[in-house]
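Justification of resources, computational component.

The compute hours requested in this renewal are based largely on the per-chain cost of generating structure records like the one below. Each record pairs the submitted sequence with a full structure-token output. That output is archived, and it is also reused by downstream analysis tasks.
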Amino acid sequence: MSSSSAVQSNLSGQITEKLSRTNYVMWRTQITPQLRGAGLFGYVDGTMPEPTRLLVSKDKDGKESSEPNPLHPIWVKEDQQVLGYLLNNLTKEVLITVTAVTTAHALWTTLAGMFSSQSLSRVNNIRTALINAQKGTQSGLADDLAAAGKPIQDDELISYLLHGLDMDYQPLVSALDARVTPVSLDELYTMLSYFDRRV
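The structure output for this chain reads:
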């Protein structure tokens, strides 16, 4: 089997979501194992750089000569297949922004640059929403943070949950404040459920 058909068969795995303007972290999470599993991640992270086009050598008299590097066309072919795989997993709205990109590494770097500031802004917006959230909406926001690449720790989520409770839950909050050992997230959900049934 030729190396190019090996690349195609190694990248046959499907991902569930093409890259859009809002799902970069989830897309990267799906696409990275496909590339790593195929042994092709080096094309996107730059650890498999493009070999020189020509091999230069000197004879015993010091005269230089050059000949085509046989590794160069193989690298170009495989890089273009990786690039094609990535492009096939972009939505049209993202694809039109990267039409001038010609290598897999350049595409990977461009996409990371495009979406890193957007991801940071989204994380900040979700955190603000968490601070202002009412009971019942925090766990969905925590899932959004995880999808944006910034999972929230359980103790932090517990603080947001307790902060979002209204005055009806004051007896429960006071009891939790008096505890010596911190409450786990599962325990808190159980206590809230039990409290809701009693009230």
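The first strand starts at residue 54 and ends at 58. Residues 149-199 form one domain.
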